[in-house]
Structures are given as structure tokens and as C-alpha cells.
Amino acid sequence: MDKSKRRFIKGAAVTGGVGLFAAGYSHTLTQIGKGVVNGTSGKPTHDPLHGNSLTPEYKVDLKTGQLISNDEQRVVNTMCLGCWTKCGVRARIDQKTDKIIRISGNPYHPLSAREHIDFDTPIKAAFVGLSAFQEQGLQGRSTACARGNAMLEQLDSPHRVTQCLKRVGKRGSGQWQSISFEQLLNETVEGGDLFGEGHVEGLRAIRDVSTPLDANNPEYGPKANQLLVSNASDEGRDALIKRFTFNSFGTRNFANHGAYCGFTYRAGAGALLDDLKKYAHLKPDWDNSEFLLFIGTSPQQSGNPFKRQARQLANARVNNTNFSYVVVSPMLPNTSNQPCAGNNTWLPIRPATDSALAMGMLRWIIEQQRYAVNFLTAPNVEAAKAAGYRGFSNASYLIVSDPTLPRFGQYLFASDLGLPFEGKAYGEQDSPLVIDEASGAVTLASMSQKAKLAVIHSVDTPKGIIAVKSSFQLLSDAALGFSMAEYAKECDISEAKIIDLADKFTSHGTKAAVISHGGTMSANGFYSAWAIMMLNAMIGNINLKGGALASGGSFPAFGKGPRYNLQEFDGMLEPKGVFLSRSKFPYEKTSEYRRKVEAGQSPYPSKEPWYPISSPLLGEHLTAAVHGYPYTLKAWINHMGNPVYGQAGLGEAIGEQLKDPKVLPLFISIDSFINETSALSDYIVPDTLTYESWGWTSAWQGTMTKVVTGRWPIVEPRVAKTATGDVVCMESFLSQVAIKLALPGFGEDAITAADGSLHPLTRAADYSLYGAANVAYLGTAVADINAEDMYLSGVSRIQAELNTRLKPEEVKKVSYLFARGGRFENMRNARDEAGNPSKVWPKPMMLWNPEVGSRRNSLTGEFMSGCPRLYQPALADGTPLDKAFDKSQWPLLISSYKSHTMSSMSIGSDRLRQVHPNNPVRLNEKTAARFGISTGDTVKISTPNGSVIALVECVAGVQADCIAIEHGYGHKELGARDTVIDDISIAANPLIRVGINMNDLNLFDPSRNGRYPLVDWASGASARQGLPAKIEKIA
Amino acid sequence: MDKSKRQFLGKMASVSVGAALIPVVQVYAQDNPQSGNAGSSSQTYNASEGQVGKRYGMVIDLRRCVGCQACTVACTIENQPPLGQFRTTVQQYEVSQQDEASSPAFLMLPRLCNHCENPPCIPVCPTGATFQRKDGIVVVNNEWCVGCGYCVHACPYDARFINHDTNTADKCTFCAHRLDVGLLPACVETCVGEARVIGDLNDPNSQISQLLAANSSDIKVLKPDANTAPRVFYIGMSSAFEDRISGQAPVRTLLTDTGEEIHHGH
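ok -> C-alpha cells follow
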């Protein structure tokens, strides 16, 4: 059936497509590209008919299935790092040149294959399974995305850092000298007058774990906290960085890119799932759902795991019965699929108003009683199971609702009533209470089969009468706090459409789910994400076939381990004190608060906001250090992080201060490229790429089985060597710093094996090799590698390295892992016999979260809402953005979206960039007409603290108030400008500069004291959606 | 489907295990445009004749295409055309409906050489450099091609181009160099949505034949009126797209955020 026959195409605009350069432009590109990639050279082709196409990696006989290898190439399974999905890939390498010539997917890996092959499949069978023999490869394909295909160009990029660099002239000058690893180590550890600008304290002087850094505020912790270590994210080597940072050096200050990635979503999901430590989230059961709702995420375009979920959604469109989905976004996303129109719809929404839509849906669902009553009234997992569910909620739990009581917002506990309980009052074993449906009595949540849902009650306790409400009642109050009309007006979606969406969502039992992600990175993001995710609780879909699924888990490499204890060591420190970003620590416990109270002053506002429910926030770490509140930094070691490019407004807010050695005395970057952040550093330690380094990491989410991805040097690293012949990279730098400072946890006897023997941690590979042995022996140990797998998998190359640290029996098993690119649980373990997921989320879905509802906004002193409610995007002091910035001057709202091709670090790839070389901003065609703007016009886009020049595409697929900007472009570094090393200039590639970076459209929070980029007031995550803006045509 | 795949693969593994490992030797002798090499092994096909008895074609299921461009990039790396020249592309169309109350939607349209049954590029070639193999794959002999560009103009699908480096006509070959050694084309191998399916149209049991049969009411080709008999088929394509594949051009000029023009579009 041709559904599209019913549709009449009014206009068709090509957006972001390719084939743009059939004439003219290609010549320019060719000139620039020559010598950069393995392109053709104007010579006759290698083969008359096959041109310059690559020689196949092997042959498979189409009649017999016999595999015939090509000894001029090796095919290896390892990890991609084109983005943070970290898929397993297979790479073809030319044996003579040691260059990676092509990359595709690892068939053993669940992020690359829809149904990954069994772990014990021989390598040869895996290869044949990818071939045309009996068409096996069509069903068995394991893919790489556009980026994954292209990232091989990084290996020999002229813009790579391969030597240790020390700045020449001022920070950010773009001029460097190459120095030895040993010189770099000595200078950074010992300090001195390193740049002729005066004395710089080295890491040795900074590392003091006993003297408080601020005697007036002892809770800030020791002086060692004045070292900040950041890692872009866990790409398989995070554990070593944390070991060095927390447990050896002893600084509290560590952070990754989460605060400017998707932390609002993680925090909102974590609030729902009672996990404000690791911020668990959920993914839909793509293969069995009937209705999916995506709000602020576009699973066929980006997100995590992008490639896997895109493939599963594509499959669901064709194979699921009665399947449909709606994607809510300010701009038409790639998740829209016109051939299946009718079964999928784009619902445009005003930027940063997702919470209005979600709260409107919640209001209707509650008023119309469309929620899963038997799920919500089950106060424990057994009761829920009896009602047919595989998880439970705290909907019926009683919450102290009198704001004058000290325990406002917390559960009413058994100990409050003098009922029997275990352990400490209000401890983990003290029981929350419900009102039992049958008896009407206040009952332990664990003892009731069915509890009352809507409760407003006064409980007589030995401590007096305590007013309580149920979680459900509090959520209901919040949802009913605004009318449907108000919600509709806020988000620019009609009441009828909100109701229709809520109706659809609640019409499929538990075979529906809603997810979100970076679309909620707005100044009300945490509560938006929580409101969106709360919809899942209304239908009780958790842990159920067709519903919302927990992570499949991992085989952890770096824990206490069956072979080597990588988590504990003699003399290990526990970091102490307050994070620079004022995270995970309530303001009310500070000396500042105490002093104000003692002086009879109002303790509010704090000097700057505190973020009691948040993880460490890299952006707020840095603004804190620059402004000196709560304290300053003396040194920053940054591994791969790029907050100056990645966080909205950060570069403009503090870029100049970061260049000032008086503000930040020592700045060391560890990276394989010079990005917008490492460009400002004093030293750069060259780092190994994913193709050159060792590591163990897992999937973020979205797999139903255990995954651990192993990466290993599949080619000879291009970086310099130390005097002892080790590879210069992150591991060798941190290890040698620790050894030079005689820190615990590194050196000759740093690692304890299961048999009690001691082992060295001195070389770059060591930690990851011990981790590999742990992975191999977890549970049932994996098999030993056989000769055929060894021959076909390319791991024979690394045998010498494995033998340096591992026992012979370990080497055979670790080789088996590397041959397969990790360790993966078999697909058949994903589900039980009924098709439900084997891995379940064990904790309750939190309609009210006491950890949130008992905390205050440290500026206003008001309690944070313990359940989702409508908050407008606002400044830190609560002033709504549309009050702070007059609509008549700032009529539009910026909204950004992830690129389907370009990540923040992929612009240097010519073969990728040629497909999608620019990011013209998209504007609604009617809005554009109002401003006299047409497609192709040059415009100036401004926010209150920044402006850029851009080209415009005027289309129907953008909400009327929105300026839509794609991420990944507008680079100032990564090869965008000339770099001088030892007086030799590495010429810039101007194509890397093309386009705009949304994060240059700055908005500083005027309610704060200094230049702070706008963040979500509740979580401290970067606000990049819904920034007020204007647009003017200039050509 | 999933379980049978695993079982199937298990079975195949037992067939292959123990087979000798023989290095590939690739030699292509060339006397005239259609004399490819005759390989020593039974599975090495004559590059000019192709796989006699087969008729290769491709189905692209637009319901599955996610627009990720993995195929585009994989193709350019596998086949190494100059930067900016493509053997396959995926264009992305924003489709609005007449009914303004409905939201627009995206169509992702992968395109490549259609390996037509009646290819208009072949008769115009003055040297015979471009020809069709017996398995239907249309190829160009780079040693015979003089780069006149007649074939480029004759192709109604813009599937050919003059390679700026070799100055010869260049186009998709369905990755014949891979098909001939039992492997899948780069674009098919890396297709994230599993939208691209290549196979033997002469074999009624092939996946492509089965897909065509199962979706027979929803199979379209581009420019059906051009009488080229294309062998790239689309599932889920609106008939409005059959002849309307150019659309409104996207922005091609390259500008930096300060307004500096890096390249002016065409």
C-alpha cells in the first residue's frame, strides 16, 4: 500500500543533503584535500574497471562459504570514538602502511549489529556472516555511521598533536615548542619560573591533603582540591583518571562533559528512578512497543546510542504491529519518516517549553483517571507483581506536607509513628508509610497490598500531628496548578493536541514509552525532563515488554575483579570537601550559611547558587574557579574536554580569564588535537586515539544484554615515546606524575592480584591489561583463543605487550576478548520466556522525590518542588527569561540540535565534512517572511551577550518562534587556524571554520555576580535551548 | 528471524571451519575494454563478464532509511573518488502537504547508478569504454574512457561524473570488486537502517526478489517514463517523487561566523 499516495507534495526543499558539489565546488575541495587523505592523484586508476576502489579484505566463496584471507590487510574489532556512543567497529588496516583504510561495524557488538552474533562464534564464521554467501550479510550486517566510517582520517591528520608541547608566548597564541616528555613531567610537577612570567606552583606544591585550603570554610577541604582534573567522558580510561584524581592525588575536583551534554535529562530521569547518584535512565523496548513518544530527542538522528536506536526504530516502523510514534521538537527532526507518514508525526513545540506539554498531559491523565491505577496503588514490588507489573512506584507514600516542619518534603517514616523498624531512624531500613486501602490504617509500605492513592491526611504521632499528602496527591496538585489553556499557550500546542497525545499515550497499556534527552538543556531543564519521564510512571511500563527498559549492564573491568583488585590499594585516599561547582552539597551545611544565621541575617541568598542534587558540573567548576567562589584553582589537568566550545556562553564568559596565569596558574591538557579549550593551555601531552590506546567501557544504555567494549592499539601509535620507550599519552603522564610524587596507587607494587601477589602500575598499558584479565575471568571465564582466531583477528600483533604484564593463561583469554572487541552477553539472554527484559530497574518510580523536595533554592530560600511542575525558563533567582529579556527586543528563541553527521570533534574529517560541509540556520518560512528574510540570505543572529553571522534556510519544518541551529560547526581550532610548532607552521584548513557554533550565542545570567553563562537553576546544567534572540538580514 | 539467523550462522560456521587460509591474489589483465581477468580460483569472476547467470539489482526501503549518510561516506572511502564527487548520495527532502494543518515530514532519498536494463549511457559512448556486464552491472573501463562526458549527459539520473583526478567517467559499480569476491557493497554493508538490499533478481529466492514480491504494490523506480528500466527499486516512495528529484536547492555557500566567505555556492 502506498500511504504517501494520499499526500500531495506542496513543496520539497532539500536540506542538509549531499550531491551539492557536482560542479565547481569540488575542485576547491580537491585542492585542499590533496595530501590530506588517501585520495586519487590524477594518475591512471589502479584497475581499469574497479578504478581506485580498495582491494577487498578477504574473499568468501559464494558456493562453499570458504573464507580466503588477504595477507596484505588485517581486519580487527575495536571501539569507535566519533561520538560518545562508543560503538564496536571493525577496521581494515593495510599491513604495509599501517593505515586504517576502512571502518564498519563489529558483528559481535550490540551497538553495531541489531542482533549481535553469539560471543563464541569463531572469527572466520563472523566474517562469513557479513558476506554475500547465502546472503548472510544482509541480515547480519554490523554497521558504522557516517562518522564512524570517517574517523579513521584522524590517525594521520596534519593537525594531530604527537609531541609534548609547551606554549611559546601568551596562552592561546597558537605558538608552541616541542619538548621531551621528561621535561614536561619535571616542569609540571616541580613548577618554577616556567614561562618567564614568575613562579608557578607545580603539582608537588599543590598536593597537600592535610592543610585546609580555607581555614574559615573548613568544609571546602584540603589544599589538594585546588587541582581540577577533567575528562571529556568515560571512553574506556576514566577509571585510571579517577584513581589518580580522587584516590592518589586526593583532590575532590573532577568532572566530565555531562553538564553541557544532556545532564538535565539524566538528572530528571534519575529523580524519577530514585537514583540521584548515577542518574539512571530508561530506553524504550523498540522491538515490541506500540506507541513511542520522543520529546526533546530524535533517536534517528542523534542521542545515545544513536546508531542502534535509529536502526531499531527503522525496524519497528516496518515490523512492529500497530506501531506509531510522535516526535516533539522545535524543528523537524530526522526521526520524521515521510514514507510511513500517518504512523509517525512531528509535533512542533516552542523551544524550552517541554514541561508545559508534559504537565498538560499529566493533568489530563490524572483528571480523566487514565493512569494505571493498579500500578500506582501497589506500594511495593510484590504487590505490583500481583497486579501484573514488574516495577512499582511511591505514588501512595506519605510525604510530610507542612512546610513549617523540619522534615518537610520527606517521607513519613515508621520511626515517626513509633512503629517497629530496623536500623537508624530515617535510615535505609526505616520504612515509608502508606494508607492501606483495605484497612484505612497507616501501614508500612512493605506490608500493604494496595494503598490509597490520593491522600490528604493528618497523622497523630508521638511528636504531634503531622500533615501529610501522598506523592500522587502532590503531583496531582502540581499538575492542576495550571489550566490546560495555560499549558497550551506556554508550549504553542493546542489543548486538543495535548489531549490527543495524552490519549494516544495511555491507549496502549504498557506497550508505550516516552524518552527525552538534550532537548531539555534549558533553564528549566531538570523539571522538564522529570515531567516528561513521569509519563512513564502513569502507565506502569517499567521493566515490561513493549515498555521502558533498564540498562543491560556490563562486565566491569576496573572493580575489585576476579584477577586484580583495581578499585582498592594501600594508602588510597577518599577525597574530601566541597566540589568547586557546589554540587551534591547543601548550602545549609556551609560555614557561610552558619555565619549568616549566627549574625542574625537571612542566610539567603547564597553568594552563588548551590546544586544539592547534581553531579560535579564542569562549567560551574570553571566559573567558580575564575570568580573564586567557593575557592580558586591552582592547576587544571584536562583530558580531551572542550567546554569552551561545548558549553553555551562559557568561552565568552571566562575565556580571557582562563588565559590569565594569575587566575589559573597552571593548565595542562592531554589531547590528540588542539581544541578550543586545550588551545589555552600551558602544556599539551599528546594522547593516543581510540585506535591506538587501551581501554574498557560500556554502552550508556539501549542494550538489553551486558556489554563491555575493549579497545587496543590496532595500529602503531603515532605519538612520541618516553625516554624508557613507553607511549606518551594520558596514562603515562598521570602514572609518571604519581610515581614522581610517590603517591599511593602507582608504581612497582601498586596492584594486588587475587592470589595476593603485587604487580606494577608504571606503563601506559598496565591498568587496562589488568582490567582485561578481570573481564575475561568474570563469572564463567571466556575461552582461550585458538590459532585460527589469532590469525584472523590481528591480535597476534599485541602478544608481546600482553605478555609483559599478564600470566600466560590470562594472555590466551584476553586475546580472545580483544579478537572480538570486548565481551558481550548473548542476545538470547536479553529476555525471559514471556519476552520481558531480563535486567530490571529495582527501585521505585518516584512521583515525589524527597531528596529533591527537601532541598531549597540557595538564592531564594524556597523549597525545590519534590515533583515535576511547570517552571518557565528562568534566571538563577527565578526571574523568567521573558521578563528579564523584553520580547519586543528579543522576539525569537534559539534552539539547537545534534547533527546526524557531525559531532563536536569530527569536523577535521574531509570525507565526512564533504557530505555535510555547513550548518545554515533554519528558520520558519513565515517567520522569515515577517523579517524579510529568504533562503540563502546572510543574517546576524544576536543574543543578549553574543552574535554571529550565518546563512539561512527558510523551511516549513521549524516552530514559528525558533531559530534552529545544528551543532558541530563554527570551530576556531582543530585545524581552523594556523598552528606554529618549533617555528614550523601547520597551515589551517579554512573549511574547518565554516558555519556557526550555537554556543557562541551567549547569555550571561544577570541575576548572578559576574559573568556566568545561563544554566538550569535546579541542576546547574548548561542552558542552550530557548535562549532569547533576534535576527537581522545583512545581505 | 533473529533466532533463525543465529542458528543459520552456526551451521555455516561448521561448513567453513577448517578451510585452508589462502591469500588473495588480485591480478587484472586487460587487453580490450571487456576482457577482464580470469581468476585462478572458482570464486574469482571475470571482472568484465561479471557473475554470469545473475542479474544484480538493489531495493532501497525508504521506510527504513534513517538519512544517516553512512552509505555516502562508506562509498567514498571504499571507492576513493575525489573529495566532493560522489557515487551515491542521500538527499533529504522536507515534504509539506497541501493541508496546512498537517506537519511537514522528511523523505531521505538515497540515489546511485540504476544499472538500467536499457542504459542510455552506453550507446553514446564513442569508445565502448562503458558497457554492461552479463550480471547487469554497468561499468566503465578507465583505460578506454576519453572523458568526453557524453555518458554523463545521457544519464537521466545524474549518476555519473567526470572524476576530477582521472578525467574519466566515474560511477557506482555496485562495488563489483566486492561482489565478485563474495562480499557486499560498502553502502549495503554499513546501512544503519538496513534499507539497502542488493541481490540477484534472477533468483526468486533471493532476499531482493522476496522483498519485491512482498511489496509489489509499493515498488517504484525513478523516472519510469524515461524507459531506462532501472534496476534500483524503491519501497515507500511517493509517486510524486518519481520525476521530481531535484527540489529546492539547499544553501551551498560556505560562510564563517564572522561572515567570511570560504566558498560561494552554485
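Residues 41-116+174-237 of chain B form a domain with the Alpha-Beta Plaits fold (CATH 3.30.70.20).
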